[in-house]
Design a protein that fits this description.
Blueprint lengths: L1 E7 L11 H4 L4 H15 L2 E7 L3 H13 L3 E5 L8 H10 L3 E5 L21 E4 L4 H24 L8
Helix pairs in contact: 3-4
The structure holds 1,3,4-trihydroxy-5-OXO-cyclohexanecarboxylic acid.
Length: 162
């Protein structure tokens, strides 16, 4: 069993009513439901889904996920473009992280073109609406499984060392 933590930043609690022409009509609860269905269909994946408007809270969420060996799907929203603290959190706990965005940030204002998270993420998926999260889930699960298998094999007493 592996765990995937889906962490959402500021203003994403307003999805559905927030600029629907940019972010679509699905609510964050709808996105959570889609991912829960995906995790259930996949099996052997525990899904944790969280949102906060508070930067420090997101730091704590990342630390918790990383220290538990969980994978992280992170939509840091506006903090993507500003937060050294979130970037440091990912590095600090070596969290396997995929950065996601609903919108194609590169087709928008130039201040959205730069991400402080991308250099410490495994990859970035943006522009596919709610499907950005689905694609990230599909990409991240095998990576977390592989890392977990490696960590388990390297653990003392795992029987792999003579
Ligand atoms: C966003 C893109 C960010 O630039 C913006 O600040 C958001 C949402 C997205 O999902 O498209 O809040 O992360």
């Amino acid at each position: 069993m592996i765990a995937i933590h889906v962490l959402n930043g500021p203003n994403l609690n307003l999805l559905g009513r927030r600029e629907p022409q940019v972010y679509g009509s699905l609510t964050l609860a709808d996105i959570e439901q889609r991912l829960r269905a995906r995790a259930a269909a996949r099996g052997q994946v525990e899904l944790v889904f969280r949102q906060s408007n508070v930067e420090g809270e997101l730091v704590s969420f990342i630390q918790e996920a990383g220290l538990a060996g969980a994978g992280v799907i992170l939509n840091a929203a506006a903090y993507t473009h500003t937060s050294i603290a979130l970037r440091d959190a990912i590095k600090s706990v070596d969290a396997l992280t995929i950065e996601v965005h609903l919108s194609n940030v590169h087709a928008r204002e130039s201040f959205r073109h730069h991400s402080l998270i991308a250099p410490v993420a495994v990859g970035v998926i943006c522009g596919f609406g709610a499907a950005s999260y689905d694609l990230a889930f599909d990409a991240l699960v095998p990576l977390v499984e592989a890392r977990t298998a490696k960590t388990t094999a390297a653990a003392p007493g795992s029987g792999t060392h003579s």
